[in-house]
Structure to design on (351 residues):
């Protein structure tokens, strides 16, 4: 029998996080713990306000989940089909269930999740460090703080894009990933930006234009001298089918894909279609970050730094050392003593 517990949790950020579409200093989460017999798996829903889910909507959804019809903890496919049938959307809270189920399955079989998926071992992998939109002085400071990272991810899409890049380039030669978060509205201007960015040592451009501007995106893809990666435009598996009309690659995030089960399918389909695979995240605890690490062998680019810019990450899991995520080969998603963290989470929330 499965037993689901959950706790709303507010994840506080070290610095205000500013992108083309808004700013915030904390992120609402719903943390989950699912028990099967004597094994507990842990999961997480991260819900930045832009994406429509809230702690209230997540609790409303998870309250409807009834796993009493399921006896096999390895039937994650069947359980997730049922979870998906409860209501559309709600991808983050669905992911929180999927992640906990994978944690359980891994713990029962004594395998880290990547072994459950028959994926090759990745001992360590570089992640980019994201720097959000800010004044040139602050950007310089953040860039220097991230000097151990092999790649930086720079948020653009404001009126100051060139100033931002110049501030970074004043103090760093690190290769850059760019995320415009749909901030460029004119295709010719976007192309001009990309040509200029190529000269500045940029590797790829994430979501340059609004998702709805399909014709413009298709045009931009055909002309761009740098790969273009879809993030807001790529939510779930069905979006990968037509992704190559607009993008050279896709950004898979567990909060969008409803977790590892569908995230794995998205990565495999993307490979089949010769699309690049990026692994991304929101502001998250080490729970979701550790879970996503298990897809790393399928990724061309990894941006799993959401647990680094926060002040109250309750979990310990896959560690990031000198800009690299280090495999710990712990069965399940890779959390270290999560029971202790869970007790503290419950206490902190109740006080
Ligand atoms: Mg993005």
């Amino acid at each position: 029998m499965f037993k689901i517990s959950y706790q709303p949790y507010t994840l506080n950020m070290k610095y205000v996080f500013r992108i083309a579409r808004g700013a915030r200093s904390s992120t609402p989460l719903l943390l989950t713990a699912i028990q099967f017999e004597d094994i507990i798996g842990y999961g997480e829903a991260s819900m930045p306000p832009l994406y429509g889910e809230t702690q209230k909507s997540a609790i409303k959804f998870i309250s409807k989940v009834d796993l009493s019809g399921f006896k096999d903890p390895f039937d994650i496919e069947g359980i997730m089909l049922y979870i998906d049938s409860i209501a559309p959307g709600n991808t983050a809270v669905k992911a929180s269930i999927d992640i906990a189920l994978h944690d359980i399955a891994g713990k029962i079989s004594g395998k880290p999740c990547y072994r459950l998926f028959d994926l090759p071992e990745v001992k360590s992998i570089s992640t980019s460090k994201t720097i959000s939109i800010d004044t040139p002085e602050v950007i310089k400071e953040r860039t220097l703080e991230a000097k151990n990272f092999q790649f930086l991810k720079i948020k653009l899409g404001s009126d100051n894009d060139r100033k931002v890049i110049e501030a970074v380039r004043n103090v760093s030669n690190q290769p850059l990933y760019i995320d415009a978060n749909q901030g460029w509205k004119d295709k010719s201007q976007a192309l001009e930006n990309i040509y200029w960015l190529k000269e500045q040592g940029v590797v790829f451009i994430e979501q340059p234009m609004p998702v709805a501007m399909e014709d413009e995106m298709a045009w931009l893809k055909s002309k761009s001298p740098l790969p273009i990666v879809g993030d807001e435009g790529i939510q779930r598996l069905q979006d990968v089918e037509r992704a190559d009309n607009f993008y050279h690659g896709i950004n898979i995030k567990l909060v969008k894909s409803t977790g590892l089960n569908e995230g794995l399918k998205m990565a495999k389909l993307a490979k089949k279609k010769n699309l690049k695979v990026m692994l991304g995240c929101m502001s998250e605890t080490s729970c979701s970050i550790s879970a996503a690490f298990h897809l790393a062998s399928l990724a061309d680019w990894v941006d799993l730094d959401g647990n680094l810019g926060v002040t109250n990450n309750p979990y310990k899991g896959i560690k990031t050392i000198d800009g690299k995520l280090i495999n710990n080969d712990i069965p399940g998603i890779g959390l270290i003593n999560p029971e202790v963290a869970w007790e503290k989470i419950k206490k902190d929330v109740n006080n």
Q: What stands out?
A: The radius of gyration is 20 Å. The chain has two domains: 2-110+337-350, 116-326. Residues 179, 181, 206-207, 231, 251 surround magnesium ion (CB under 6 Å). The CA atoms of residues 162 and 193 lie 9 Å apart.
